[in-house]
Amino acid sequence: MDKNTSPVTLITGGSSGIGAATARRLLDAGHRVAVTARGEERLRRFAGQVGDGDGRLLTFAGDAGDHTDVQGAVDGTLEAFGRLDTVVANAGFATHDTVADGDPEGWREMVLTNVLGPALLIRAALGALKETQGRIVLVGSVAGFIHTPGNLYGATKWAVTGLAENTRRAVTGDGVGVTLIAPGRVETAFWDGLDGALEGRTLTGDQVAESIVWAIQQPHGVDVNNVIIRPVGQPV
């Protein structure tokens, strides 16, 4: 692909895990990619691992739940690359507690990142995506379809599930596609510090990224809406 005309994707939370795996796959396919993350150091490490893709990689430090940061990343991507074909709302995390016994101090940031973050990305990018008739990809979770007792993280992913369909209905007439990717257990930093939580089979970040890239590369006019991915052996 000509690097000046190749498709452009912006990925939030793109310096590690599923987001980083998706960025690598797209760069390998000749796409131009912008990634965001909270920390400059994490972004530098990621860029050092993959290189700048011959000028095809941009990085932006910022909070996925902050309107100014998200708008700045979208504007910076458009300024550098001149277009935007896909956004991937991947940034998210869990406090791994329940509404019965959890620490409310951690809940606000989780809700802002997991729920407000995707909405802010859609709001900031929609004008550019209408121009390219591009795609919005929201990374949800099986937890957004299956209730877990008292799990507020799961409630945030139910919100993402709803946001995907609400957004699809709002933008499909403009030629913009919306895809929800809902993985089950994935072996990423999401589980750090939870001994025994990943017993049994898991997906890899690369396996989920493969599905994201598959959705992004669907032919023009094809709108893949919901993709639920579990490792074989995950019962719920």
Fraction in helix = 40-55%
Strand content: 5-15%
* Tally of domains: 1
Unreliably modeled segments:
none
- State the separation between the terminal residues, measured CA to CA: 41 Å
Q: Count of DSSP helices?
A: 6
CATH superfamily membership:
NAD(P)-binding Rossmann-like Domain
Topology as a string of helices (H) and strands (E): EHEHEHEHEHEHE
For the secondary structure, the number of strands is 7
Q: Write the CATH architecture name.
A: 3-Layer(aba) Sandwich
The average pLDDT score comes to 93
The Rg value, from CA coordinates, equals 17 Å
CATH topology: Rossmann fold
> CATH class, please?
Alpha Beta
The chain-level structural class is: alpha/beta
Largest sheet: 7 strands, parallel
Oligomeric state as shown:
single chain
The spatial strand order of the largest sheet comes to 3-2-1-4-5-6-7
Give the overall shape: globular
Overview of the structural elements:
- The protein is an alpha/beta fold.
- It has one domain: NAD(P)-binding Rossmann-like Domain (Rossmann fold, 3-Layer(aba) Sandwich), CATH 3.40.50.720.
- It has 6 helices and 7 strands, in the order βαβαβαβαβαβαβ.
- It starts with 7 loop residues before the first strand and ends in a 7-residue tail after the last strand.
- The model has no long low-confidence stretch (mean pLDDT 93).
Sum up the structure in keywords.
236 residues; alpha/beta; Rossmann fold; 6 helices; 7 strands
